[in-house]
């Protein structure tokens, strides 16, 4: 990536959270625990699904991809955030700041696309159960995930090209805990109209379209569920997609609030914490706590691993 030689900004100061005072260390410890639980929880989901043949189905295959994305998102944001909280601000190189934004954009885009694929999986399972196995084959699922990755790289490429031509001459202070697009553009001395327009165009194929597909899928799912005669049958069928629906609500709810409604910086920081830190923590909990099959397989895995660990 080539940057303008006239750039005078070499380091970025992230202010993070000012005036934490006595809450600085407790907040640091809380973030550290959240990060460890997030990584371990998502790794556990991947391990349980990979080691159990009964979980080798499209839904759980997509779940492992979502867990990997949550680890990527959390690792992109939280480690540097810990430094910011501990030292009441942290300096990062200009290139490092841009790279953090690109990884953040990649993980958020990938998560939205994976949630869309997962909604299509639930649509096929509930609305077309007789054709589910013939439609949701392993090659199809792999191709769907690869398409998500290709689209993710297609989303990053235009931003990396256009931002490489911007001139950053100062200031070099961002009042945020990570390098998001708007705070970075505020540092530019160039005209950022084209990049902001690109951001609005980006929202349509990678934000609005996936969300529309999810909404349409769930409209058909709800119609199909309401046609089931027994209350027990309706509850059982709905339970197969309830976890996904909760995760979609958490992800898109916070993103819509951040990008479509005007906010003060403090409110924006709060909601940014929610979708960059809290959501990756909650996703594995939502899927594991409400899923009897995953809990059963986790117990089996624990019973297999514990004797081996004790033998050592």
What would you say this structure looks like, in words?
This protein has 312 residues and is mainly alpha-helical. It contains ten helices and three strands, in the order βααβαααβααααα. Helix 2 runs antiparallel to helix 3 and helix 5 (138-163) runs antiparallel to helix 7 (193-226). It is globular, with a radius of gyration of 21 Å. It starts with 10 loop residues before the first strand and ends with a helix. Residues 1-5 have low confidence and may be disordered.
Short description:
With 312 residues, the chain is mainly alpha-helical. 76% of the residues lie in helices and 3% in strands.
Number of helices: 10
First and last CA, distance:
49 Å
| Structural class determined from secondary elements | mainly alpha
- What characteristic shape results from the CA principal axes? globular
Task: Profile the largest sheet.
Answer: 3 strands, mixed
Number of strands: 3
The low-pLDDT segments are: 1-5
Strand percentage lies at: under 5%
Amount of helix? over 70%
Strand order of the largest sheet: 2-1-3
Question: What Rg, in angstroms, do the CA atoms define?
Answer: 21 Å
Q: Mean of the pLDDT scores?
A: 87
Topology of this structure?
Elements: E1 11-14, H1 24-51, H2 58-87, E2 90-93, H3 94-127, H4 132-135, H5 138-163, E3 173-174, H6 181-185, H7 193-226, H8 231-260, H9 265-289, H10 292-311
Parallel strand pairs: 1-3
Antiparallel strand pairs: 1-2
Helix pairs in contact: 1-2, 1-9, 1-10, 2-3, 2-9, 3-5, 3-7, 3-8, 5-7, 7-8, 8-9
List keywords for this structure.
single chain; 312 residues; mainly alpha; three-stranded mixed β-sheet; 10 helices; 3 strands; disordered N terminus
